[in-house]
Design goal:
Layout: H1 4-11, H2 17-31, E1 38-41, H3 48-56, H4 61-70, H5 76-87, H6 89-96, H7 102-120, H8 126-132, H9 138-145, H10 152-167, H11 171-186, E2 189-192, H12 203-210, E3 216-219, H13 222-231, H14 235-247, H15 252-257, H16 263-272, H17 296-320, E4 335-336, E5 341-344, E6 347-350, H18 369-383, H19 386-398, E7 399-400, E8 402-405, E9 408-411, E10 426-427, E11 433-434, H20 436-452, H21 458-472, H22 486-491, H23 505-508, H24 512-521, E12 530-533, E13 547-548, E14 553-555, H25 565-568, E15 573-577, E16 581-586, E17 599-605, H26 616-636
Parallel strand pairs: 1-2, 2-3, 3-7, 9-12, 12-14
Antiparallel strand pairs: 1-15, 4-5, 5-6, 8-9, 10-11, 13-14, 15-16, 16-17
Length: 643
Amino acid sequence: MRDLDYLKLLSKEFPNRRACVSEIINLNAILGLPKGTEYFFSDIHGEDKAFIHLLRSSSGIIRTKITEQFGKVLSDEEQQELAKLIYYPERYISRKKKEHGYCDWQKISIYRLIKICKLVSSKYTRSKVRKKMPKEYAYILEELLQEDGSQEDKQVYYSNIIDTIVNQDAGASFIIELCDLIHNMTIDSLHIIGDIFDRGPHADLVIDELMKYNDVDIQWGNHDIDWMGAACGNEACICNVLRIATSYNNFDVLEDGYGINLRALSIFAERVYGNDPCTRFMPHLLDENEYDEVDPWLVAKMHKAITIIQFKVEAELIKAHPEYEMEDRLLLDKIDFERGVVEIEGKECKMMDTNFPTIYPGDPYKLTDGERQLLDTLRLSFTHSQLLKKHIQFLYSNGSIYKTVNNNLLYHGCIPMNEDGSFMSFPRVNGKYYQGKALMDYFNKSIIDAYYLDNNSPQKKNAVDLMWYLWCGLKSPVFGKAKMTVFEHYFTDDKELVKEPMNPYYKINNNVEIVDKILEEFGLNVDKGHIINGHVPVKRKDGEKPYKAGGKLFVIDGGLAKSYHAKTGIAGYTLIYNSQSIALAAHAPFIEGEESTPMVEIVQQMNPRARVSDTDIGDKLKRQISDMEELLKAYREGQIEER
């Protein structure tokens, strides 16, 4: 029997037996509905236009729904135009306003959009659909969605509604709201498996788009945590964010997006490296900056300047935290400046760049006064950016380092493992160790502490420092490699030294026993569960598959970022898990204005069809039903008085 005080509290909402029975009927009915469609994306890397197109097209599903509804009455071209309207309503309406017959077009479009909306919302309760509707149009939309075309009088009623909407000059806004509702109905829940930031032009616009969705969660990747660390004031993370941005000639997201003032860096770089061609630091010109054109030679100087500062501030963290076990990354003191060579792993290598005006050979990790002043300026800029603060808070509110949902385990990179399949251990202060789920929970708490703990808290600094370790540390689950060879890439031409050995997880994750071990560690059903992660691009063009261990593990990094297209042969994956199947959509590179049909592969068929009762929400509803039955019993036995 439930606690009587709890049942009395519940009785305030359900004051009598009739109310209880009604709610039990309602909840049981919901359990029988098909489960909502979940979408999984990974490694977006700032590719705002490509990603937003995937979202707004529901990875090709909306186009399929249009064909399903109108395939026999509309031409392929007309279907294509309707799809474009749904994807980008504001842009499409702006063009249509200039054409003859705009009013008639609005009426026809509303009619067609209502049909699509009815189709994509058919498996949801009216209550759920109502919650997703814009409040100002909720009543009208509910009426239109009930239209079945069978009654002549009702047809006049519905036509009058649509005519009035258009005649009152509300057609455009109503169409936009309808398109947004279709997006929200098609994607019931959205899972982002890490790495929203870096490489591409506008991670800020990606997050703006994600914030429009009702049900979205994020499993942080190492690039996300790097930016989160920068927002927490971690100077190594700040340097690394800027190093990657200058490496990819990506200034729009920094200056136009987040208002990070880079003038101090450009002045410092020009003054210190004015005569240095910095050829090893020339940026990848994958995207031209739309708002802030910067001369590539100046970018190269800025790139080198921030990289040298990064090596210095990283050394401070490595020395302060022996538990990181990263002493092998201390390389500035291994340089013989007179001979122009460096010793790495017992091997002497020729330095490909020997101009270091800010490095003191006797104390190579000491910051110059100019570097210290520059860092202070940059830190203030990162920690005081209001939009960055808003976006970081969204990442915290909707994110975690892993998530279990509907018997699926989601994380960005890996669960750190040894060659023998045992979990890697990370030392605790008290001499004990974290591993497996406990390690993930520890890192998750530390990330939260880094942002939310009071600045005077003794745990704050360690948590902020750990943000950098998560970016590139040996046992970081979101990095998943033995080392990050940034120094070797810039200053040597040794192909062996630049290799970054992957964690053994990536060698053994095709083993069903290993995947089952991880699922069990997180309390999931090994017969029904899956692991879904990203981080490592799947080279589809070389025959690599995104699923392993007999379909129990999915790696869905298909290379959405332009820099990976040649390597993977595609431009990203979407994993789509609906009531009937688990499917993988492989996307072609995005070309604005062009529609491309993804290659969809059904990986697992749901037999029988998955219902709400099979989901986490279903478990919650079953508990609510149990509570209602207890309350009903209390009413029947007179323990609680009905009202």
